[in-house]
Amino acid sequence: MSLRTPLAQVRGHGSARQGAHHWWMQRITAVMLIPLFIGFVGTMVALATGGYAETAAFIRSPIAAGALLVLVVTIFYHAALGLQVVIEDYTSADKCHACTIVTMRFIMFLLAAISVVAVIKVAVGG
Amino acid sequence: MVTMNRPLSPHIQIYRKQITSSLSILHRATGVFLSLGAFAFVYWLWALATGPEAYASAQAFFSSIIGRVLLLGWVFSLAYHFSNGIRHLFWDSGKGFQIETVYASGKAVLAISVLLTILVFGVAYAMRGGVV
Hints:
The complex is a heterodimer. By secondary structure, chain A is mainly α. Helices cover 77% and strands 0% of the residues of chain A. Chain B has helices at residues 19-50, 52-63, 65-92, 99-127. In chain B, helix 1 runs antiparallel to helix 2 (52-63) and helix 1 packs across helix 3 (65-92).
């Protein structure tokens, strides 16, 4: 007989009326990533021959820098949502799910922040 | 709580492998692998923001054998996750659920992923003027 409330047993283990938002954001970011990745891969292929100067000059264009910023933020949002599902499905619920998810989100947030600062630094010609 | 002795759904050891389940797990596997690729992407952006020397060493890494193998893996993973993601979006809109359609779209996604990978690497190498 556990003295824990039923709420404590389900918290952090699944739907807390947020599942629809998670699902919907996964789809919205997926749709956004379609044109963004077509542009990104096309650019990467075109810049494969180029060195530092050519690549940096390309990102100084506000259109390229803006698209790259949206791309990095969308990538890490989409990745965080996807990795959360993988953690929930394949790791034991006995081990703190929330701990793993918070750690994963922290790493994704950090990578996104580093990317944003890097893109802005190149874009403003730092 | 009466959670013991509940029946389990058919488990992986006895579940017959089929294209639907294999492609589904490949979608997740490529997603996880692409998340690792995000670290390389951030490294590339960091190098670009740091300066020509850092960028040159990043380029040296990505042109090395290990770098190229990883890039091949990431390009294929992206091509697959991208194509299969679009397949998922069709399902989300309620289309393509007939079993023949599911098999056909699965095979199409695999073929498109391989073709896209060859296309990206082919054009990239052609633009380098054939210098490998």
